[in-house]
Amino acid sequence: MGRLFTNNLNIGYGEQIIVNDLSVSIPDKQITTIIGSNGCGKSTLLKAITRIINHHSGNVLLDGKDILKENTKALAKKMAILPQSPESASGLTVGELVSYGRFPYQKGFGRLTKKDLEVIDWALDVTGTFDYKFRPVDALSGGQRQRVWIAMALAQETDIIFLDEPTTYLDMAHQLEVLELLQTLNIEQQRTIIMVLHDLNQAARFADYLIAMKDGKIVKAGNCEEVMNHQVLKKVFQIDAEIGRDPRTNKPMCITYNLLKGENKHEENSIPSHFALSAHS
């Protein structure tokens, strides 16, 4: 079992339950990606695990402790989150924004220490944003800003980083840039990365572990071979997918797909625990 897991988690807004009785263990020091259609509860799950929103029942445990009982600053030293739409950084320089990541370590009047300044420079350097340190965040491109937000998360010096759709609104090159950065952080620094992605092939390419959700429940969780296949995608997205192999990574990828129509769209066939990957070559 990993350091982080949920137990019979129920999450909702008001009386409406979005995530229902969900139990999952997040692999340590790996990249976990959550996939599913819009409104299935992906972002809601992320917000509950990181204590942005409260859950109705069940619990989220980190290192054996319920996160609801953890001190805020203590928790912020263990996990960082980059939300889907980060708050405006209008008027801030890149260095100032990244310095906010040091909040959990500040005492008294919150003046930055020598250690804080060293960590800020390190986070800027590792994300390739050091040259922007004194530039306004507003003056950067979308990809550059996203890397700066990741630098702020790194400045928290947490072992676990959550990202909610980190490639949204970015072009293909900048999407790849951000995902490769996260992969490097995972491989070289052993950071545990948990993120939500919409692009199935990006999810399969960069993830070690996939969680496929539908209607607030987990349909399938496992490695890419177990999740990225015809049957799971049919159940989660109601699509008839042709699965092949990425020639560069040899991981499964969706080559093309059709929408399921009529009665087939609503089929709720159970998924066997083990079945062969539907690959077409």
Automatic annotation (TrEMBL):
It comes from the Bacteria. It is found in: Cell membrane. The keyword Nucleotide-binding applies. One of its GO terms (molecular function) is ATP hydrolysis activity. CDD domains: ABC_Iron-Siderophores_B12_Hemin. InterPro entries: AAA+_ATPase (IPR003593), ABC_transporter-like_ATP-bd (IPR003439), ABC_transporter-like_CS (IPR017871), P-loop_NTPase (IPR027417), Siderophore_ABC-ATPase (IPR051535). This is Iron-enterobactin transporter ATP-binding protein. It comes from Heyndrickxia oleronia.
